[in-house]
Amino acid sequence: MAANTKAKDRRVAFATIAGTTIEYYDFFIYAQAAGMVFSTLMFEPLGSEFGMMLSLATIGISFLFRPLGAFLAGHWGDRFGRRAVLVATLIGMGVCTTLIGLLPTYAQIGIAAPIALLVLRLIQGLCAGGEWGGAALMAVEHAAPHKRGLAGTYPQMGVSLGMLLATGVFALMTGVISPGDAFLEWGWRVPFILSFVLVLLGHFIRRSVDETPIYQDIAERKQQTKAPVAVLFKKHWALIVAAAVLFAGTNASGYIATGGFVTAYTTNPDGPIAFDRTTAMLCISSAAGVWFLTTLISGIVSDYFGRRNTYLFGYLWLIVFAFPMFALVNTAEPLKVAAGLSLFAVGLG
Q1: Exposed site from 86, 105, 115, 287, fewest CB < 10 Å?
Q2: What is the pLDDT of residues 106-125, one digit of tens each?
Q3: pLDDT tens by residue, 51-95
């Protein structure tokens, strides 16, 4: 019996981490491409500065739709089960990512190109919102009470692994392809099209996991609520608002330090740093590795010292090391840039 339980725990952990890794690989390759190529390929008439601003804004716009995705996934997850929703969000994200990799550019179809890009990014936001919360639910609801902190880290470990995979693939593409026309013509598309293969793998892995015991119990007792979101807000609105505001700060910090902003800032040929793309990707990858390790450690620590104390420590770390991180990035020395981003990533984890 104990062996079966351990095998089930490993299967749930693997499925949660693998699915979230694939989902956030899709999410992060968009952020990397927004910092490197979309300003040129999709927003060319606006010029380099305004094109870059709008390109990076499309990263942020998706966050407006993530809460809606989370609500919809939570609503459907309470009615139809966690696994079905997670499979749907994974497929939705993968299809959108693959289509972005196949999109014509502004030079080819005009304004239809950035409009299509924006629509696909908004759907990505919906899917990502549903993915993370659903994966956390699946992991925690399968876990024993004394291991829920560790189990809750599984989806977040997948986020940092997705970042590692995304930056690694882009580093490979920028390293083997000349930085000129070839990368802009087709090289940037390869990481997006690769998503189709990853999603098929993730779908197979997710299908192998049983529905969570808590949902099975709810279904057996026929206690599914017709409007779970309405009931949730009626009874727990203050907790929802507090959690959302707190998590917004963490998310914003994460995407500044490891997402499109740092990519654009460090690879701008007219900027103060002007790294080549491969160097920038390697610096971000080092931070993603630290993010992964400290996420795992934080889950273990939270099972002993509490979620609130662990979270407050992480927030304090972000506040203390925000300015040193930017100071190290501005040295324009690769090792110091990597160190600054990695130092900040400890608090993110």
Answers
A1: 115
A2: 999 999 999 999 999 988 88
A3: 888 888 888 777 778 778 877 777 777 777 777 787 888 888 889
The number of C-alpha atoms within 13 Å of 152 and in the hemisphere containing its C-beta is 17
CA angle 273, 157, 337 (to 5 degrees): 15
Question: Residue 108: is it exposed, middle or buried by C-beta count within 10 angstroms (0-12/13-18/19+)?
Answer: exposed
Distance CA 287, CA 289 (A): 5
For 224-249, the pLDDT digits (tens) are 556 667 777 788 888 888 887 887 77
Give the ranges where 208-333 is alpha helix by DSSP (H).
213-220, 228-258, 260-267, 277-305, 307-329
Residue 123, φ and ψ in degrees, nearest 5: -65, -35
* Residue 268 C-alpha from the chain's centroid: 24
- Arithmetic mean of pLDDT over the chain: 83
Pick the CATH number of 2-348 from 3.40.50.2000, 1.20.1250.20, 1.10.3810.10, 1.25.40.890: 1.20.1250.20
**Could you tell me if 90 and 78 are in contact, meaning their C-beta atoms sit under 8 angstroms apart?**
no
Residue 97: burial class (beta carbons within 10 Å; 0-12, 13-18, 19+): buried
Distance CA 349, CA 341 (A): 12
Cα-Cα-Cα-Cα torsion 177, 178, 179, 181, nearest 10 degrees, comes to -100
Q: How far is CA 128 from CA 6, 144, 164, 173, 254, in A?
A: 29, 26, 17, 25, 15
